[in-house]
Design goal:
alpha/beta; 5-stranded parallel sheet; 20 strands; disordered N terminus
Length: 483
């Protein structure tokens, strides 16, 4: 990593957006000696990587873990002084709630796709006949499926392993991770390298097995003692130490470039700089940049799925037994349950269980499936009032955990809504990203960052933001210093 800059030596830059992409970009630029101003529309930074207080406990309001397939996030946490506080979840893992059964979620696959369809856990989930159909993937010819330009995750799984694997294993995982139906998810976006691995190994199960074998040992995710929101807090503290200006409540209304200088108009005033990182959400980014970049407006992304999270803190000693591991993913069509997932946070994170003590538990239920099929769970429950969602959460928690969860047990609760927080990696997404990158690349000293281009998850967002801001710093190094 670059040495911490002692003073600004390069022209100034402006970062629009104070989510993780914007904060990481600002830090990277500052480390290269750039004077940086961050403009965030909301009253606080961090996007969905923040904490809130519920019943006296500081809990994650959005993201509560990160993937460990690379050291991207753990390295950043270490640089920010949080390396000793990285933690692993309870190894018990999550369960799978099917319409007709509940069982531990099989752990040998990727996005629910099994590496061994005849594994007893897979057979238990989909039945012997469906397992034999899925196992036939090993000998079925590949045909021309892999050459298809816009290939969805659902189409790949259905063709190779059948509908049962798709509906009972892959769909619940896709809903939990992307709030979307596998049939609309671009396989190259949500499972990079899977298509090539299938071609190389001759079957989907062999490809999944190979990718699993290549993954780092240990848990697939990790967290931070005290919650992932501490990452945002540490980033902000580091930016303050480096002299980065962070303005919240500073919604940007227009950006323009004249004579090599970017001009940004916001509710907090007008700012200028030689460089610009556009780290706002996709719709906002396109709207702001389209007047400067012909053709960009046609690539404006649609709104991502809306999600509502209901956090319950309750006094219920019966949950000390962790009846459903660290939580459940719920298959569409499960009668009487509207949540798509339930996280038993005090069962998942030992640090949180130590804080709450025996008998006190934290549950988080997630609502909102972007399927487009109401009969399959596509209704947007985020339109419900907080009270309605709370009541539904009590009903769902009771049904999913097999333990009564009632008003008298509740010590505190809170609803958080994320509208469009998850990028919709629909079929053709990678082509759209490439087109956006090409158009943005035509403008000097401009970089565009964020999950709508980089992909879902902190690993993708952090790695992309660092790469983009390093490129911008290199461009700025060729410019004369600002006065």
């Amino acid at each position: 990593m670059p040495h911490r800059a002692q003073q600004s030596r390069l022209p100034a830059a402006i970062v629009v957006g104070g989510g993780i992409a914007g904060l990481v970009s600002a830090r990277e630029l500052a480390l290269h000696g750039v004077k940086v101003t961050v403009l965030e529309a909301a009253e606080r930074c961090g996007g969905c990587v923040t904490r809130h207080e519920v019943a006296g406990f500081m809990l994650d309001a959005g993201a509560e873990s990160f993937a460990t397939r690379t050291r991207t996030v753990s390295d950043l946490a270490t640089e920010l002084g949080l390396g000793a506080e990285l933690v692993q979840p309870d190894p018990a893992g999550a369960w799978l709630q099917l319409p007709d059964a509940v069982q531990p979620l099989p752990k040998s696959g990727i996005l629910g796709i099994p590496a061994d369809p005849l594994d007893p856990a897979i057979v238990a989930a989909i039945g012997r006949t469906a397992a034999l159909r899925a196992a036939a993937d090993k000998v079925l010819p590949l045909g021309n499926l892999l050459s298809k330009e816009g290939l969805s995750l659902g189409e790949l799984v259905r063709a190779r392993m059948g509908g049962a694997v798709l509906d009972r294993l892959v769909a619940p995982v896709a809903a939990g991770v992307y709030s979307a139906d596998p049939d609309v998810l671009d396989v190259d976006s949500v499972a990079p390298g899977l298509r090539a691995s299938v071609a190389s190994h001759g079957s989907l199960q062999a490809a999944v097995g190979a990718l699993r074998s290549a993954a780092p040992a240990g848990s697939a995710v990790a967290g931070i003692d005290g919650g992932m929101g501490r990452l945002t807090e540490a980033l902000l503290a580091d930016l303050a130490r480096q002299g980065v200006t962070v303005r919240t409540g500073a919604r940007v209304s227009a950006v323009s470039q004249h004579d090599g200088v970017w001009r940004v108009e916001s509710e907090a005033g007008t700012f200028t700089g030689a460089g610009l990182v556009m780290a706002a959400d996709g719709g906002t980014a396109v709207d702001l940049l389209a007047p400067e970049l012909p053709g960009l407006g046609a690539l404006r992304p649609g709104p991502g799925p809306a999600v509502a999270l209901v956090t319950l803190v309750l006094d219920e000693p019966e949950l000390d037994a962790k009846p459903r591991g660290t939580g459940l993913l719920v298959a569409a069509g499960t009668k009487g349950v509207r949540a798509k997932a339930l996280t038993h946070a005090t069962a998942k994170w030992p640090w949180l269980a130590a804080q709450t003590g025996p008998g006190t538990h934290v549950l988080r239920l997630s609502y909102g499936r972007a399927t487009g099929h109401p009969e399959a769970g596509g209704e947007d429950y985020t339109g419900w009032t907080d009270e309605e969602l709370y009541r539904q959460a009590l009903t769902d928690a009771t049904a999913l955990l097999g333990v009564p969860v009632i008003d008298a047990d509740i010590l505190g609760w809170k609803v958080v809504r994320w509208t469009g927080a998850l990028p919709s990696a629909t079929v053709g997404h990678r082509d759209r990203v490439a087109a956006v990158r090409e158009i943005a690349g035509s403008s000097a000293r401009l970089q565009v960052a964020g999950a709508w281009l980089a992909g879902t998850g902190l690993v993708a967002v952090v790695a992309d933001a660092r790469a983009r801001s390093c490129q911008l710093a290199a461009e700025l190094a060729t410019q004369p210093p600002s006065s």
